[in-house]
Amino acid sequence: MTWCVVGIHAQEAKQPQVVTGPGYKIVARSIEKSAILNGKPLYTLSYHFDFQNRDKIFLQEFGNIEASGELSYMSPSKVVEFWSRDQKEKLATVEFQETGASRATEVDEMPSPKVFLPVTRQSSWPKNLSAQTKILKVVSQHYPTGARAWIENDTQYFETLFEPLGSLPRRILGQIALLISFPTAPNSDPYNINVQAAIQERRRLEDWRSNNISPETTSSAETFLGLFVADLEKASGAQ
């Protein structure tokens, strides 16, 4: 078994953070506090990884993924363990430290799963195309903090924070969060990527609400979802 523990400290953040070991290289882009979940912080971990002479590796949040690529996602821990695809060999343990201030002056609370509507949109995905890193890349294009990632009951979940909606009248503010899910071991080809949305609205100086959403905010959310699903389709090779 080959493994190591590496601490990357905030004072080193001005220089590219490169961690190397036997047959692997990890480059940390940024490690930032980005959200709160059940009173505890979540961190957006953004890094490139390359494990040579391997086709797959295992990460707890994703299961088996490609052995080389980029990830940007929210995690409650700044410690990342990289395992062989059969989980018999720990390849590396990297302990990250924050590289800078959080992305906002106030860190947002993750949405409650109860606020997400039933499946709003679906996008097909070919069984032979690895999904996790490609879908996360699409998420990051629309949500700078990425998504909280976890696996439950053989289903991969990606949950985002709320992001503002555009093209609204000046008197209305709207925001949307997404919950994306798909099977870790699909039994059909292609299979569906499920997209659920949580939509909130408020007038200026009012609190956010999830009911009685105006037609303007609903229309803006539908436009956003259409663009997001179109980007998923491009990532899957459907377009």
Task: Give structural notes.
With 239 residues, this protein is mainly β. The chain folds into two domains: 92 residues, no CATH class; 126 residues, Alpha-D-Glucose-1,6-Bisphosphate, Chain A, domain 4. The protein is 14% helix and 45% strand. The chain is globular. The termini are far apart.
* Secondary structure tally, helices: 2
Mean pLDDT: 90
Q: Which percent band covers the strand fraction? A: over 45%
Major sheet description: 6 strands, antiparallel
Q: Domains counted in the coordinates: how many? A: 2
The rough form would be described as globular
- Intertermini distance: 43 Å
CATH class (first level) name of the largest domain: Alpha Beta
Topology-level CATH name of the largest domain: Alpha-D-Glucose-1,6-Bisphosphate, Chain A, domain 4
Structural class, from helix and strand content? Answer: mainly beta
User: Could you give the order of the helices and strands?
Assistant: EEEEEEEEEEEHEEEEEH
Give the low-confidence spans: 1-13
Percent helix: 10-25%
- The CATH architecture designation of the largest domain is 2-Layer Sandwich
**What is the β-strand count?**
16
Q: Over all CA atoms, what is the radius of gyration?
A: 19 Å
